[in-house]
From TrEMBL:
Organism domain of life: Eukaryota
Listed name of the protein: Methyltransferase domain-containing protein
Domain Methyltransferase per the UniProt entry, residue ranges: 140-419
Pfam families (alphabetical): Methyltransf_32
Region (Disordered): 248-276
InterPro entries per record: Methyltranfer_dom, METTL25
């Protein structure tokens, strides 16, 4: 089960510890890497002259980068043989060869990026899931769930075999969403019993913060047969709708409808009067009547409400019991759910302490009168693409919860991580601090300044690393670097690249237009009032636009202005007053912008050379950010390694569980309790 290497690092490193040491030294002391991983922001690209490309890219790289198309550059960065790249360029007539310093940079980024395309033999032989279990999944999700569910089954079997007295009884999926993974695990996961070779299923505990996701997941559980569907109430839909129309008096009723309602009302009144007359005699009659006297069955009244109304009332009753302190674990889950394999727990995790979740887990009922009561619950915490700090919470569960025997977490959305050490200062030699990189965006600033103990980095080694140069203590990546770590440049096609390069190009030009027309002002730091290199332009967050807005620069600018005018700054942090100010400024300053002026901007910045400047820097950023993701993953492994030194963790490793082409965030971090 365990791979040969604890980390999937290059063979150039002697061990995982050697890799981590050299990685820390590289990311903390390499100016070019620090500039490209967090030191460049797309909105500042055209706000200075001659442009950001010439101020952040080393001078000896510029001619080669401008001589490459974007696909040629991606091949050079990711796929070409670096050792022979110089000779290959020399054979092309009139082409600029790559400089030696760029070749060395590419070589370093490649060797510090964890290997991603190595799937274990067991994973490649994974059996396909039944079609009904994949209901609602796209091709990418099917690939992820198929391989990861098989991996979790093998891991749970391994942990159970190593400790037969405490086999894994439940799989806790943190951030379950629509519970695609839990549904697959519940449909095929088995464990051996103490009685012999008989098999029984493991339970799945799905932890999700959004109630509508749980409701949707339960619906899919019933449709796929993993969970038993509740009994459906019988009702006369026509009569129910007519009664609603009578109450609202909105629909004109026909004579046929009135007769149907009258008959129903008359029958109900007659039944009601019979019940009133016999109410006092029911008990006496039951005791004194002869044995052969037929009993009068109770009157059954049909529930005329819709299923949505019935479910809403039931959910409200459960919530009220919980608020009153009367809802025990058995009351929080319907009886039909306890007899099934999946239990849902609604709640938001703020740390790795899962006590409030694990206390609600019910013993799994396999057969009538047979439960796991004699076997203590033992948990394997899993997550597939848990966003931001949720990955940290899942890993910390191994340290904070003795009942958790193992963890297996695949993370994603590194831009949602909080900062443990605060924002980086970017005191990079040859590059002055830039305000956009120490973000003035309200939400980002608050997240980075609060120094969240649950944030990045997790490990003490990354948090306290002291570089040899005069730099700040600890490893820090700002939101720009972490967002770029979510990219997958090896999967970019020519058409996809052209599409998002065009979007970035339009956004960079719009920022220049905002600056020229006085919508935004330059932000300076360190007293550099007249220095464009030490300044940035305050951002406006636009968000997504309709597809038609990307047809041309004119359509993009008009669409963005209309959106900002209607709703103001879209970052979700501005107050209503601030939004009104932004909307008014954009409406006033951009109203007189003509199509001729937009065409002039397109001519100045839209030529092939300027567009290539932007695509080259963006490609370098995405390529370099592979080291950022590797550092984040290595930090999580290092955290488990530190728990191993403390005697809490017996073993830990990182390996690839998906095909990178199908799912780029494919590294699972595994830890097993001692």
């Amino acid at each position: 089960m365990r791979p040969e290497k604890s980390l999937p690092h290059s063979d150039e490193f002697l061990s995982a510890d050697d890799y981590v040491e050299q990685l820390l030294r590289y990311v903390s002391s390499t100016p070019v890497f620090q500039i490209l991983c967090g030191g460049v922001h797309i909105m500042d690209f055209y706000t200075s002259d001659p442009g950001l490309f010439y101020s952040v890219v080393p001078a000896d790289w510029q001619a080669f980068l401008l001589d490459c198309t974007h696909m040629e550059l991606l091949d050079f960065l990711l796929r070409d043989n670096v050792e022979t790249a110089m000779d290959a360029a020399a054979t092309r007539d009139g082409r600029v060869p790559p400089p030696a310093s760029l070749l060395q940079y590419v070589r370093n980024v490649r060797r510090f990026s964890l290997q991603r395309n190595v799937l274990s033999r067991a994973a490649t032989e994974t059996m396909a899931l039944p079609r009904k279990i994949t209901m609602g999944m796209n091709a990418k999700k099917i690939h992820e769930v198929t391989h990861f569910s098989a991996y979790i089954d093998r891991l749970a079997d391994t942990v159970s075999e190593d400790a037969p007295s405490m086999p894994i009884t439940h799989l806790v999926d943190v951030g379950s969403g629509q519970n695609y993974l839990g549904r697959a695990l519940a449909s095929k996961s088995f464990i051996p019993t103490a009685a012999g070779p008989k098999k029984r299923r493991r339970g799945v505990v799905a932890v999700e913060s959004k109630g509508h996701n749980i409701a949707g997941a339960k619906g899919l559980d019933m449709m796929t047969g993993v969970m038993a569907a509740p009994a459906r109430p019988m009702r006369n839909k026509k009569l129910y709708q007519q009664m609603l129309s009578e109450k609202g008096n909105n629909v004109r009723q026909t004579g046929k409808a009135r007769n149907r309602i009258a008959r129903s009302s008359g029958e109900a009144n007659e039944e009601s009067s019979l019940q009133d007359a016999d109410a006092l005699e029911t008990t006496d009659f039951a005791e004194s009547a002869p044995a052969n006297t037929p009993k009068i069955p109770p009157t059954m009244v049909a529930d005329m409400r819709s299923r949505i109304e019935i479910a809403a009332e039931a959910y409200a009753q459960i919530q009220q019991k919980q608020r009153d302190g009367k809802g025990q674990a058995s009351e929080m889950h319907p009886a039909t759910e306890l007899n099934n394999l999946i239990q849902y727990v609604e709640g938001r995790l703020e740390n790795g302490d899962l006590a409030h979740v694990l206390s609600q887990v019910q013993p799994l009922q396999h057969e009538v009168g047979t439960t796991d009561g004699d076997v203590p619950c033992s948990f394997l915490t899993v997550s597939i693409h848990s966003c931001g700090n949720l990955s940290h919470h899942g890993l910390r569960a191994l340290e904070l919860n003795p009942a958790v025997r193992a963890v297996a977490i695949v993370g994603c959305c590194y831009n949602l991580l909080t900062e443990r050490l605060g924002p980086p200062t970017y005191k990079v030699p040859g590059m002055r601090p830039r305000p956009t990189l120490q973000p003035i965006n309200g939400r980002v600033m608050r997240e980075e300044e609060r120094r969240d103990p649950e944030g990045f980095p997790m490990s003490a080694r990354f948090a306290s690393y002291a570089p040899v140069t005069d730099a700040e203590i600890g490893i820090r990546f700002n939101i720009t670097a972490r967002m770029m770590a979510c990219q997958a440049p090896a999967n970019w096609t020519e058409s996809e690249s052209e599409s998002f390069f065009t979007r970035h190009f339009y956004r960079a030009i719009l920022q220049r237009i905002f600056l020229d027309r006085g919508v935004l002002q330059r932000v300076h730091i360190e007293g550099q009032a007249d220095d464009e290199e030490g300044a940035a332009v305050s951002p406006i967050i636009i968000g997504s636009l309709r597809k038609a807005c990307y047809a041309s620069l004119s359509a993009y600018v008009r669409g963005a202005v209309a959106k900002i005018t209607a709703q103001g700054n879209g970052d979700g942090a501005a107050t209503l007053a601030e939004n009104a100010t932004v909307s008014a400024a954009v409406a006033e300053k951009m109203a007189s912008l003509t199509d001729a002026e937009l065409e002039d901007y397109n001519t100045r910045y839209g030529n092939a050379r300027r567009r290539r400047e932007l695509s080259a820097v963006w490609s370098l950023m995405a390529f370099s950010a592979g080291v950022v993701e590797s550092a984040i993953v290595a930090d999580r492994w290092q955290y488990l390694r530190e728990q191993q030194v403390r005697g809490i963790v017996r073993d830990c490793w990182v390996e690839s569980v998906f095909s990178y082409e199908q799912s780029p965030r494919n590294l699972v971090v595994v830890g097993i309790r001692a």
